[in-house]
Write a structure and sequence with these properties.
With about 325 residues, the protein is an alpha/beta fold. Helices cover about 35% and strands about 15% of the residues.
């Protein structure tokens, strides 16, 4: 008999087909709450979800046979880990399967913001480019020799650092602890990193500790020529403070792929010319998606075979 698994969000068709070959697959759910559980969910031994969705104690305890929570993607912030630990439920995620894709996109956002690529495209589309002698866009600092601060030097942050080094940038970072095996300058506080950096990239995990870590004080330290790039989670940035900083030119610009209340994007951000906005697509490279799917399937196979998970998260 096939084991029963429950899919909270809608997942890619290719992955669904693979799962249906091996399991009784229930879902997707309209919302991640006990009242939205499909018929037969009490038999589910594994829950497939995403870190941005709430997987709270109420949902976990409504699944009496649950033994594994598998997050599609790297985020785990929505999972009540204390409840999972108390129940003896295992947790896994996509580890670094999408790290290269996200790092690539981070560099794209860095270029788009610091080199004003979006503004330049709008300049051309509006018919304002009549030759340099009539009107031209102002010069901006290049990237070579500039200081890049990375908040969170994990799998994604380390890949961003290596790519930025190829642009001849100087790399610094703030992390929960130093990484002496890497040749980058460690800062023991986020505020100190922002004060040092010309560009600040947020690559930290979402948690209670990192909520609104990027606040007015940090943005003021980044300064009027500074740029903020966020490819991690929207919760790490105080969006009201960021809007104020962009409107008053407290910082030069920003580029965001994530937002605190997705898919809602503050209207204040949409009205600004000095911010680049994208719809949470940093991990949307085909290679990254296939790698995440392979890892999710591999974790399920390992769990039901009684073997160690491929990418466990310690609880």
């Amino acid at each position: 008999m096939k084991p029963t698994i429950l899919m909270a969000p809608r997942m890619p068709a290719r992955l669904v087909e693979r799962l249906q070959e091996r399991y009784v697959l229930l879902g997707p759910m309209e919302r991640s709450t006990p009242d939205a559980l499909p018929e037969g969910a009490e038999a589910a031994q594994a829950l497939l979800t995403m870190g941005s969705l709430k997987t709270d104690a109420a949902l976990i305890n409504a699944l009496p046979k649950l033994g594994l929570i598998s997050c599609y993607g790297t985020g785990i912030e929505g999972v009540d880990q204390a409840c999972a630990r108390a129940r003896g439920i295992k947790l896994c995620n996509a580890a670094d399967a999408n790290a290269t894709s996200v790092a690539e996109f981070a560099m794209g956002l860095l270029l788009a913001s610091a080199r004003q690529i979006g503004a330049a495209e709008r300049f051309v589309r509006a018919g304002r480019w009549q030759g340099n002698s009539v009107e031209r866009m102002p010069n901006v600092p290049g990237l070579a020799g500039r200081k890049l601060g990375i908040y969170g030097l994990g799998a994604i942050g380390a890949r961003i650092a290596s790519r930025a080094a190829a642009f001849d940038m100087t790399i610094g970072y703030h992390n929960r602890s130093p990484r002496p095996e890497l040749p980058y300058l460690y800062h023991d506080s986020l505020l100190g990193l922002a004060d040092w950096a010309d560009v600040l990239i947020v690559a930290v995990r979402a948690s209670i500790e990192t909520r609104h870590a990027i606040n007015t004080q940090v943005l003021r330290a980044l300064g009027p020529e500074g740029h903020l790039i966020n490819i991690s989670r929207g919760i790490a940035v105080d969006e009201e403070a960021l809007c104020e900083a962009l409107e008053t030119k407290l910082i030069a610009g920003a580029a965001l792929d994530v937002y605190e209340h997705e898919p809602q994007v503050p209207e204040r951000l949409k009205l600004l010319e000095n911010v680049v906005l994208t719809p949470h697509i940093a991990a949307n490279a085909e290679s990254a998606q296939l790698a995440q799917q392979d890892l999710l399937v591999g974790n399920l196979e390992a769990y039901f075979a009684g073997k160690p998970l491929l990418s466990p998260v310690a609880l």
